[in-house]
Design goal:
This protein has 295 residues and is an alpha/beta fold. It has two domains: 5-92, 434 Repressor (Amino-terminal Domain) (Orthogonal Bundle), CATH 1.10.260; 96-293, Endonuclease Chain A (Endonuclease, Chain A), CATH 3.30.870.10. 49% of the residues lie in helices and 13% in strands. It contains eleven helices and eight strands. The chain has helices at 13-28, 33-40, 44-51, 59-68, 74-92, 107-115, 134-141, 147-168, 194-208, 261-277, 281-293; strands at 5-6, 9-10, 118-123, 178-184, 214-219, 232-237, 246-250, 255-259. The chain has a six-stranded mixed sheet, with helices on both faces. A two-stranded antiparallel ribbon has the order 1-2. Helix 7 (134-141) packs antiparallel against helix 8 (147-168).
Length: 295
């Protein structure tokens, strides 16, 4: 789903997951939003916002709804309380991303990325943002404009580059983010910015593979076809209790969140299949070296 917004409220991944579980419990109990609103001494509008993940949910409200829905299992109640707690903390957290206005719809993604312990990336078109050098980023964003608009665009581009470099600090922070990236061969044969950018970017990729928390594999043209060629996706994992894997997928004019469940599991299975059919780490490194020699 696209990240929804309503007034000053914005839904979050964990908020939507919590809301979805509350809806399921309410439906199982055969109750309506009117019943929930009465139990909370609130309006139906508030219940709707809670169930859609628009707003943070307080612990007393979680407990009251569990009581109403006949949910008394301590593990279930605890799970919902933990989701609510993590969601509240993440909503109020301030990070480096708050200083950059160019992030746009990526705001929620980088917030999750900053809290993640591991990310799996499949990319059939572009290098993952975590591995891009500034020249590559500028090349991606380069488009023809009039002189006045070009000056304004360059300012925004430099802010975007700075934000991307800030994201990359997660790879060397303590503890570092674990990144497992699989790239389609075409990604490494189509560099924006020409040969100079390609040389710098390939050198950077080789350097990054020296880090123990980074795994890089290449899916060659000879590997055949698979569903992953339809588009890129990232699988974001957390160490926190109740924080299920989240999949972020991008298309030309939209993005999609898949929050746990069968959808996330299917993407993880697809990723592992692609990785299994790819060159291994050593073969991929040799592939990068060979490309570099040809430039």
């Amino acid at each position: 789903m696209n990240q929804p917004m309503l007034g000053n409220s914005t839904s979050s991944v964990l908020g939507r997951r919590l809301g979805g579980e509350l809806v399921k419990l309410r439906s199982t109990a055969g109750l309506t939003q009117t019943h929930a609103a009465k139990a909370l001494s609130s309006s139906i509008t508030k219940v709707t916002k809670m169930e859609r993940g628009w707003v943070p949910v307080r612990d007393p409200d979680v407990r009251a709804l569990c009581e109403l829905y006949g949910v008394h299992d301590p593990s279930v109640v605890g799970h919902l309380l933990e989701l609510a707690r993590i969601d509240r903390e993440r909503r109020k957290a301030r990070g480096w991303w708050d200083d950059y206005t160019t992030l746009g719809v990526m705001q929620e993604y980088v917030t999750l990325e900053s809290a993640a312990t591991a990310i799996k990336v499949w990319q059939p078109a572009y290098l993952p943002g975590l591995l891009q050098i500034p020249a590559y980023v500028r090349g991606l964003r380069a488009t023809p404009f009039g002189s006045t608009e070009l000056a304004r665009r360059k300012d925004r581009d430099e802010e975007f580059v700075a934000a991307r470099l800030a994201r990359q600090r997660r790879l060397t922070s303590d503890p570092p983010l674990t990144l497992k990236a699989v790239l389609y061969e075409s990604v490494l044969r189509n560099f924006p910015g020409g040969a100079e950018t390609a040389r710098g970017q390939l050198d950077h990729l080789v350097k990054m593979t020296d880090l123990p928390n980074i795994t890089l594999q290449v899916f060659p043209f000879t590997g055949g076809t698979h569903q992953g060629l339809n588009g890129a996706f990232n699988i974001i994992s957390f160490a926190e209790p109740g924080a299920m894997d989240v999949v972020y997928a991008e298309a030309a004019f939209t993005h999609t969140w898949i929050e746990g469940g069968e959808g996330a599991a299917a993407h993880d299975e697809l990723f592992e299949m692609i990785a299994e059919r790819s060159l291994n780490e050593r073969e991929s490194l040799l592939f990068l070296h060979d490309l570099r020699k040809d430039l």
